[in-house]
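Subject: mismatched residue count in predicted assembly?

I count 463 residues in my input, but I want to confirm that the predicted structure covers every chain. Input:
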Amino acid sequence: MTPLAAVIRRDLLVALRVGGGALIGVLFFLSVVVLIPSAIGPDLPLLKRIGPAILWLGAMLASLLTLDRLFTADHDDGTLDLIVMSRTPLELTCLAKALAHWIASSIPLIVATPVLALMLNLDAAATLGVILTLVAGTPALTLTGMIGAALSVTLRRGGLLLPVLVLPLSIPTLIFGVVASNAAASGQPLFGAPLSILVALSLFALVVGPLAAAASLRQGLD
Amino acid sequence: MSLIDLANPSRFLRFAGRAMPWLAALTAILMLAGLYQVLMAPDDYQMGAVVKIMFIHVPNAWLAMFVWGVMSIAALGTLVWRHPLADVAAKAAAPIGAAFTFLALITGSLWGRPMWGTYWEWDARLTSVLILFLMYLGIMTLWRAVDDPSRAARAAAILTLVGAINLPIIKFSVDWWNTLHQPASVIRIGGPTIHASLLLPLLTMAVAFSLLFLTLHLAAMRNEILRRRVRTLQLMQAATA
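Triage response: the counts match. Full output below for your records.
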């Protein structure tokens, strides 16, 4: 087994076993989606209109909540030092860790989306639109979030800092995700352009995220 | 004296001390000259006297982006050469840049009320500048979160370079998305579309504000270097006591 496959396997196992917290994200997603109708009242037409935005906001906050898991436990028990010192390029290891994190934390969110969409009175086209945009956009959230996680892991009060650093960088993804979902919900032919931009954001983050995260891990740990 | 010599903090302090009064005087003169030109400039045929806000708003908005550019260059200095003066330059620039961005947002909001009928509009230019402001605040928080200055410098440098991706988005947002904010009218292909009677005061104000940034930046860098020396002296004193 190559080192990268080993990293992915290990991270997935750690995330799924007791104390891993892969499902905490889904639970948080559910709580956010329940909170908003409780706050604005059970107005079904209104919920149908803002449903895609609620789902995107919930998914974004849930993925932010679990970002801390990317490096903190490994830093606490010293694994991270071994990873940084190993001969495998740190950029690729970061990419592998991001992939494992995305599988463990974002795929459950996407799987939970149809049920939550039903609760928000979304029709099939809108639900499909939200799922598609989440598949295209959550990699960008994970990969840009990884930069913040790598920056904050070596700082003592890093956990508090993480959302402040990551949220401004995630705003473009949120904007285009919601625009594309709304276009899908209203059946407009304009669905393609924002979806392409969303995919472009994810691809861009695929390049910048691992590079910046590896750089900040190297700078922070020596 | 070449630019390389300034890389020595003591030489830099001496240079900054000598240059500062001249820079401050030049800034004051140009600012007064610019304001006088603004006063004499004709009103816009559509906007009337409200157009005068532009002479404050546009230089501030330019500098909001320019300062992040300065911070990005300093970030390269920190990461590539590990130069302490680059750390100081990046740290000193952040609050000044945040102030310029804040002023650009405030003046834009005051300009938007009579022109667009609203203080705030969620269009591409306004939103991306607001994100820039949030990122300045994030950088300042990061600087404050780490006790060790050189470690804070490297973390902030990486975040600065990642945030620099936002700059072209701000610059071209008005061309890519057809929104409420007007498209570029000074720096554009095919020359400025703005009349010379308004362009000249605008450029004077832009130079004056740039000099203001340079003066404030030099002063803040000098303060930061002195602050670090005081800290080192205190640590040495604590070690011997």
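Chain A has a mean pLDDT of 87. Marking this ticket as 'not a bug'.
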